[in-house]
Amino acid sequence: MQGRVFSGIQPTSGIHLGNYLGAIRNWVTMQASYDCIYCIVDLHALTALHDPAEMRANTREVAAALLASGIDPARSILFVQSHVPAHPQLAWVFNCVTPMGWLNKMTQFKEKAGKDREGAPVGLFDYPVLQAADILAYKATHVPVGEDQKQHLELSRNIAGAFNRKFGVEFFPLPEPMILGEATRVMSLRDGTKKMSKSDPSEMSRISLVDDADTIALKIRRAKSDSILGIAYDPENRPEASNLLVIYAALAGRPRAEVEAELVSTSFSDFKSRLADLAVAKLSPIAAEMRRIAADPGYIDGVLRDGAARAAAIAAPILAETYRIVGFLEP
Ligand code: TYM
């Protein structure tokens, strides 16, 4: 094995194509060559989601999506963040070595807090410190994510370095972000300049992993297009064409340039029907498998319970050593 992978996803309803191509698909591939730990980050979701029934349902839904996508609980650890207390415990230690100024630079906080910074929860501001703790509680070396997590991962590296320097140790590794594949930033189907996101009010802006074949095809047919002949990668001038091209290449598992060469004289509508066929072929089996798994919540809960026990067994001694380094007495 080439190292330890950690990555996380929030329990929000409607995991979408961006999550799948930017992250989950790479998580699946990495199982072959890394020790992988995948986490459903409910503590992070609590910064925005305050409906207990929804939290529970989303957590199981995301677990089903990950299992259906090919995360293998026999090979990898799949668990829920709140089940392993080392995450918030380590986050507190990191809170005490992380300058406020570093968090003030986080663009995601600024976007999510919007104009009402005074009204935003402290947890939202502190969110990236908990993210650093998630990774470093396992001394993970590699973190596969989409492009939007780049800044948070840079911060995780800085926090690891700050801890090591402050206490004169070489304890935490500096984790490497792994932003892989052709579709590291999948854009909205309605506006090629905006990221595909769960918070977009329009369902038509994203393909969800639970969408059936007809819905996937409809969303692609209705996706914003332009009237230039041929499909080319030109994000400045043709953001929608570029986004759909990247999605096509990623789903086909082929280099973008190779696909682009094939599509130089294809009309937008022909391209869309090819893309719809490909998307249905690749995604609808996942949706079907997700429905099958979701019908057995007892199985899901069992996988998550087992995953939490295995995760806790790795994190507990790392947290204990951290406590020893900072000078806490042994209990
Ligand atoms: P979250 O739940 O927003 O997204 C999960 C993963 O999906 C990727 N992603 C995308 N990739 C490409 N195009 C898009 N439009 C797109 N939208 C989302 C994200 O980059 C991410 O990899 N803070 C994290 C969760 C987290 C985490 C961690 C990640 C918590 N602790 C530790 C890594 C390591 C988040 O909110 O992801």
Layout of strands and helices, then pairs:
Elements: E1 4-9, H1 17-30, E2 35-40, H2 42-45, H3 52-69, E3 77-80, H4 86-95, H5 100-104, H6 107-113, H7 122-136, E4 142-144, H8 150-167, E5 176-178, H9 213-222, H10 239-252, H11 256-262, H12 268-294, H13 297-326
Helix pairs in contact: 3-12, 4-7, 4-13, 7-8, 9-12, 10-11, 10-12
Bound molecules: tryptophanyl-5'AMP.
Q: Can you describe what's shown?
A:
By secondary structure, the protein is mainly alpha-helical. It contains 13 helices and 5 strands. The protein has helices at residues 17-30, 42-45, 52-69, 86-95, 100-104, 107-113, 122-136, 150-167, 213-222, 239-252, 256-262, 268-294, 297-326; strands spanning 4-9, 35-40, 77-80, 142-144, 176-178. A 3-stranded parallel beta sheet has the order 1-2-3. A two-stranded parallel sheet has the order 4-5. Helix 10 crosses helix 11 (256-262). The model has no long low-confidence stretch (mean pLDDT 97). The site of tryptophanyl-5'AMP has 25 residues, from strand 1, helix 1 and helix 7.
Can you tag this structure with a few keywords?
2 domains; Rossmann fold; 331 residues; mainly alpha; two-stranded parallel sheet; Tyrosyl-Transfer RNA Synthetase; binds tryptophanyl-5'AMP; 13 helices
